[in-house]
Every structure is written in C-alpha cells, then in structure tokens.
Amino acid sequence: MREFRHKIYLGFPIALFIVCALVTQESSFLLPSISQETAKPKTHNDDNVGPPVNATITTNGIPTSSPTFNHTVEPGEATGTPTTAGPTTSPTNDPTANPTFSPTITPTNEPTGVPTSPPTILAQNIALNHDYSYVTSDITQILHIPAKTRIEIHLQPQRSCHNPVFKGRISGWSLSMINFGNVVDDVLVGTYDLFHMPKSGNYHVEILLLLCEKYKEGFQSSLNLMTVCLADRTDENGLITSKKNASIAVDLSHQRLENKKARGRWLHKSLLSDQHQLSDSPLLEQPKPLLTRFQPESCVTAVDRTSSYCKQFNEDRLMGFNDYNFLWNSGADAELNQPGLSNTLLEQYQRRLKRYPEQPIMPGRKLQVCFLGVSHSRVLANSCLDNLMVRFNDTEKLANAPFGCSLIPRPYPNQVGELDSRQIGEMGCTHVVVGLFQWNFSFQRAKGWDNINFTEWQNDMTKAVAFLRQESSGRNSPLRRILLRSAHPNGLGWHYRKCPPRDFRTPINAEIATKILKEVADGFSKPEDRNTTLTPVSFIDTSFLIDPVWDATPDWSHYEGETENISEMEAKFILFEILKKF
Questions:
Q1: Which residue, among 205, 210, 204, has the nearest Cα to 238 in the 3D structure?
Q2: Which domain holds residue 164?
C-alpha cells in the first residue's frame, strides 16, 4: 500500500505538468481574429499583404508568445519584467531601442490556465504599403498601442521628409479620425477616440502622407501656398498603410465609453435600427473598408473619368459613404436624429423671442438665417430650407412661416461692404452664417493672383466681420448674431494634387483656416464687448461632422447628389445651435 501511494505521489506532478502543457497549448488558439492571423508566418507577395503583424498577447496575464516589438516606452509606463538576465534598465524614449518584454502578470482568482477573460494586445504592427517608395525610404514600422488608443509611425533617422504631415481615418463599424501630433525622436504619435468605436472587433486603418514638410510658421504663416505641393502625385496617393490588410483590433470589454464633448458619431448602417438606436444583432458581417477617394492624372477629362480604372478611385469609393449614418448622442442632441427640426424646439424658440420687437422689414419673421458666401453657402441655404420643409410640408406655408433661410452671395472677404449690410436689412436676416474660405483658396483666386497666404486672408476676414458688426448694429437692424462657420476641406481632385497646384482647398489648409476663423471670432468676444450694442460674433464648428467624410463630395467640393444628406445634417446642426443658444 505504501509503495502504491509512493507511485501516486511520483506520478501526480508529471500528470499535472502534462495537463498544464495541454491547456497552455490550447490557450494559444483562444485569440482575437487579428491574433489568429499573426500566429501564422507571413511573407511578402504580390497581393500587397505587407509584413507579418507582430503582437504581444496575454491571456489572463499569461503571455502566449514573447515577440520583439518596438514600442516607445514613456516615463512611468509599466514595462513588465525583462526576459533577459541582468539589471533592470530604466525606461527609454529611444524609438530605435528594441527591448523584449514579458508582460506583467496580474493576480487573478480564476483557475490557473483557464482563459475566461478576453486576450490583451499590448502592441500590434499595422501592415505597410510596400508598393509606395516613400514607405521603404522613410518608415520602419507603424504600431498600434491599444491601451493608449494611439498609433505610432516610426520614421527612419535618415529620411527624405523630416517633419511629414499625415491624415488618417479608421473605418468599418464606424468612421473616426486619427489626430497626429509632431515628430518627436523619429516617432509621430496619432490618437483616436474609443467613443467612436461601437463594438469590439477589427477596424481598417488608412493613413496618407499629405505634406513632406509641415508648415514652419503655423497658421499665422505668410507662406505663399501657390508654391506648396502635396507630397504624392502618383496613383498610390500617399498611402503608407496596406491597401487590404491594415487593421487594428479594438476590445471594448473593459472600456468606459463616455465622451461628454462628442456630439455623435458616424456608424455603419448595419448597426442602426429604424428608431436610430444601436442594434445588438450578432449576425453582422464585417463591413468593407472605406477607402479615400482621389483623382489620378489620367482621370481628368470627361471621357477618361468613365473608364473602369478611374471609377475605382472615384464613383466606386463614393458609394461606400452610403453605408454610414450619423447618430447623435442621447440627451439634448438626440432630437437631431429625427427628420427636420422638432416642433418643440421651434415653439420654444418662438416663446423665447417674445421679448424681441417685431422686425420692421419682415413682420412676423422670427428667424431668418442668411448664409454669406457662394456655392457652399448656397448648398447650406438649400439644405436649411429642406429641413424647414419637413416641418411645414408646403412651399406656400414655408414662405409665410416665422422661420426662413436665404443666401447672400459674396466670394471674397475683401468684397464685403455696404451692399451686404443693406441686404441683411432688406432680407430681415436675424443671423448671418459666414463661409468665405472656398473662393479665396480656389482656382478662381489663382487666376489673377501670384500669392495666396493665410495672413492676408485673416486680415481680410477680420475687417469684413468688423464692418458687418458695425453697420448692422442698431435698434432698426434685425441682425442678432454673426457666426463664422468652420472651413470645408475639398477632396483630392487632380487640381489639388498636381504640382504646382491649381487649387489650395486641401484638408491641411482647411484645418488651418478653421483655427484662424475661431481666432477671429474670439477677437470679437472679449469681456469689454459684452456690454456693447455691437452685434455679437460667434464661431460654429462643424468639423466633427465633416472631417470623417471629408472626401465624400461627388465633384470634389460640394456635398450634393449622392451625399447631400451630409449637407442637410450640417445645416440642421447650425439651425439647432442657433435655436438653442442664439
């Protein structure tokens, strides 16, 4: 009996070791879809798959592999236990360092070796576009760091573009932008907001090189934009990520998705119910990536644009935007999910305006929103009327309604003058929405000018707003507020991509112009102006709505036709803000 027990005592550790080994082997298959792919060795091929995706993955804190990855370690960041013997080294910001880490094991009460919590990806390589020569010369790798919701572009120390500018978008179950900072120690860090991710899974990542060198003087620059070209004019369109396999794995199981500043998000239609609510259906197919639209040089003429080659970059990609709808947040913004403007909102506005005297020009008209500008303002004015038509459902009723929208055509800020002031009075404008970015930076301006810069435009905008403010102030003027609207970026048509360019309304320049507009509005909103009789000036930013779909304009400029719903949403938001705040 004693001998039998002795055999059991000797055999039990061996059996336990075998069981643990089998469980550990099995756990290596319990990985998210991105990890299953990375477990297999990959090689480059003509399908543009890119390099193998290396990820450090833990299951219940137990590493299933110990690959090497380049992750810029920040001071105070948990680094885990070095796998190599010797003293522990201090954190480093050197992106060329290549440490091997073993993730820190978190104590758990769960049975050892039984993976019940989701795996964790510490760092994940994003596949590169090796068909683009810039990638080979300037980029070492692109990493996704899920815990910090950031994407790192690691650059070669010796490179052709010292301070490049990128534009990135994440697509799939939703649309969201990647916000990049400045290059630090040969690494450019971009961040994204998990609030825009409605569910766990894989999301496509697309990053474009727009400028080889960032503007040195910021948005106050007097740089002549006619001398600045976008970085790439080939059919690669500056794409640095793989065309097919650039993706990130998002895990929301332990995340608190709360963003009180966000007004809403672009979601794939398959996730939305008819009641504008998120669907919880598990039978959803992985959405296709949304690829950036652009126009190659060989697709400029009307005949060329009809070829199948040209359509793949334009019309085919344009249709992808139809798969997304914007869902406004719950709370006060939720009523924007319904068609048109709510009766409650319009009635509340009328009651609030009882303290205002009747207009001498248009008695009974409580709200007249006038869009000052040219074609983009025209589109918004029409979309404004469309929103009101949902409420009144009749052209004659709308003409006699207490709410209205109209257009004051004016191309350049330096042309704003007495005529516009008179029109404001004659049309009974209670609010003027100013949009004067487009023509000043377009091919129209390029026809008769040899210098287009931000400094001159900012001075012209400041003078135009000051004139409107002064001339429209007084007891007999209907104007109650001047609003400067954020600038619209244009798509990457060939006129914007050629060198020298013929048009300058690029995403970069629109972003800088938007910052300038906010600065101009803030300049008229100083504390000493609060008690003045001059018309107040405000800035209204629709970038959160426009930026994720910045290239959805069929003609590379206007949200009309297939994507007119974007303009209708923007106009509705502008009306909503006016009715709520102004």
A1: 210
A2: 124-299
